[in-house]
Amino acid sequence: MSNRRSFLKTSLLGTSLMLPSGILKAGEALTFPKKSQKQKPLILSTWEHGMPANDMAWEVLMQSGNLVDAVEEGVKVTELDMDNLSVGLQGLPDREGIATLDASIMKGDGSCGTVAFVRQVRHPISLARRVMEETPHVMLAGEGARQFAIAQGFPMEEEILSPKAEEMYKEWKVESKYKPIINIENHDTIGMIGIGADGKMAGSCTTSGLAFKMHGRVGDSPIIGAGLYVDDEVGAATATGLGESIIRICGSFLIVELMRQGRTPQEACEEAVKRLVAKNNKDIKDIQAGFLAINKDGESGAYAVHPGFNFARHNQQEKVLVDSKSWF
Q1: How confident is the model at residue 180 (pLDDT cuts 50, 70, 90)?
Q2: What are the distances in angstroms from CA 216 to CA 118, 209, 211, 227, 322?
Q3: Residue pair 251/238 in contact by the 8 Å Cβ criterion
């Protein structure tokens, strides 16, 4: 968890030299690429765990050229990361001690699939893709999603908590108090968005949701337009943070529509945060939310409510972890 609080100040200037670690030199003002800088293909994802996820996505994209495969396989890395307590079956459970998962995947042509409140499925992002490709629906939830997973040949995992999650759940039960802490690993979804060399776009989002949530709670991640939205004609956006605050403003859809109206990705993310703050002003000191966006030209932007949100960026010139600017 401490790594999430230690953020690297980086520059995205095209003339900057890469360090062996893959992180740009510190101390530069954060800038975003201009239209004149070609940024296709490009993969972006939320948080520090986006770095290994991006590595996998980039490898898949370079080998197959399939962006949907790339954004699926990329976040699957995070779904298996035993050190991550906010994504995958190893994530922190709800107040009943059960890990429930949400995920979504979307293509720029409008095709999409999501699953919510899913149990015992190791890779909910793959199940979301099956919903997109094998059913007439967009979302399956709960027991219905689990039954669909079984019918599709997904193995059902044993329903036990990971050692870290078990330890933290036992500590939580002493007081059984529910209060999310911003920038701590209890709502740090991974959202990934990408654009291929051909200009086609796709995105994915997966999470185990808020730690110690009410049983049955679903956040923004599996809701198309809240946690993820992709449109080849305009751009793509994804969100992370307290899902309820993001759902209230249809955050990712809002950003894409603002870009449709002519805003840059950075301007659109900033406007989304402005609206989120206005809608959640009473509790805003305890709410973190961050947005990440790209447009069809390969420009990118990011913005958060509070300092602490960062994102991973991977293109042909660089792979880098970047601190987002914030409202406060």
Answers
A1: low
A2: 10, 11, 12, 18, 34
A3: no
Element (H, E) at 280: none
Which contacts (CB < 8 Å, 24+ apart) does range 250-255 have?
250/225, 250/226, 251/220, 251/226, 251/227, 251/276, 251/289, 251/291, 252/225, 252/226, 252/227, 252/228, 252/291, 253/224, 253/225, 253/226, 253/229, 255/229, 255/291, 255/293
What tokens were used for 118? 């899913």
Classified as helix, coil or strand, 228 is strand
Count of H-run helices and E-run strands, the chain: 8, 13
pLDDT tens sequence across 250-305 = 999 999 999 999 999 999 999 999 999 999 988 899 999 999 999 999 999 999 99
Q: Which residue in 187, 72, 51 sits closest to 124, CA to CA?
A: 72
Q: How far apart are CA 27 and CA 16, in angstroms?
A: 12
Catalytic residue, candidates 10, 46, 100, 189: 189
Is residue 240 among the annotated active site residues? no
Residue (of 192, 222, 226, 201) closest to 71 by Cα position? 192
Say how many C-beta atoms besides its own lie within 10 A of residue 172's C-beta: 17
Phi, psi of 230 (to 5 degrees): -140, 135
| Residue given tokens 């893959």 in the structure block | 22
Amino acid 274: pLDDT: 98
Q: Which two tokens stand for residue 165?
A: 């999650």
**Model confidence at 37: pLDDT above 90:** no
